[in-house]
Amino acid sequence: MTFGFAPSSAASTSAPADLSAASANPLARMLEPSEWAAAGIPLLRNPREVVSGLHARHHPRPTTAVVAVLDPDERLCASASFTRRPAPADGWMFRNALLAQLRRVIPHDLRRRTPVRTAVLLYCRDGDARWTEEDGAWMWGLRDACTLHGLRCGAYITLTRDGWQVLGEGRAGRRPHAGSAREPFGTSEAPPPLPRTGGAASEVLRRAAAR
Predict the structure, then answer these.
(1) Tens-digit pLDDT profile for the chain (211 aa)?
(2) Which residues 6+ apart lie within 8 Å of 146 measured at CB?
(3) Using H for helix, E for strand and C for coil, what is the string for the chain?
């Protein structure tokens, strides 16, 4: 299931001064690859398997973002995909969109002293694999959304016609890529657990978690 950019509670509870500052300088809300690499982002043990699994579940096309939460053993706990609306790249807006999706599919871990689960972001876009300001804004948004949801900030992965690349690490592969056909789930990957809720909301969450 895919989601659009829905207003998040983070946006509605921000102070007016914060909102004013957030709208002042979008360029301040992005991270360079060197900053990302220096931030101590945990390395994926098997990035190819993570990318292949998310691609099989969500089959992203350009402008599709897939946010996923992994447990300490790098098993998928939950994931959601949504399409980015046409607008200037802004880490603050990306943060709100990612946070909204995380809140839909998995409870927060804010009560833990140390984050246990890790969120990763796969973004499918046009162009080549080189870093862009849009990538920098997604990096900033992912890091901030993880802080607000009690998660470790994990890898940021781009998916282009050239293949996939874990930015800030240099690890990459040719398949899957932005034009790849949907592939079957890997046999080593267990399906994510379903949320324990009822009614129509449960159905929405169940579809999001299952993709």
Answers:
(1) 433 333 333 333 344 444 444 455 666 789 998 889 888 899 999 999 999 999 999 999 999 999 999 999 999 999 999 999 888 889 999 999 999 999 999 999 998 889 999 999 999 999 988 999 999 999 999 999 999 999 999 999 999 999 999 998 879 999 999 998 877 654 334 444 444 334 444 343 344 444 4
(2) 115, 119, 152, 153, 154
(3) CEECCCCCHHHHHCCHHHHHHHHHCHHHCCCCHHHHHCCCCCCCCCHHHHHHHHHHHHCCCCCEEEEEEECCCCCEEEEEEEECCCCCCCHHHHHHHHHHHHHHHCCCCCCCCCCCCEEEEEEECCCCCCCCHHHHHHHHHHHHHHHHHCCEEEEEEEEECCEEEECCCCEEECCCCCCCCCCCCCCCCCCCCCCCCCHHHHHHHHHHHHC
In one-letter notation, the amino acid at residue 173 is: G
Q: Are 105 and 202 in contact (CB under 8 A)?
A: no
pTM of structure? 0.76
